[in-house]
Give the backbone structure.
Amino acid sequence: MKILILGAGQVGTSVARNLAGETNNDITVVDYRPEVLQDLQDRLDIRTVHGYASHPDVMEEAGA
């Protein structure tokens, strides 16, 4: 399943962790903080996009 998570705060990070543990999930997390995204990528098998989710070009890059 293709999943797009907007924001890597407490809720977004928790959702990403839980869904990354399931099979066949293609997860992308969008956030404006590169250090948070790097930490998630280091720990989980997910794709990240750096930027603001309110910007159309960022959403396009994320696959929305």
Notes: The chain has three helices and three strands.
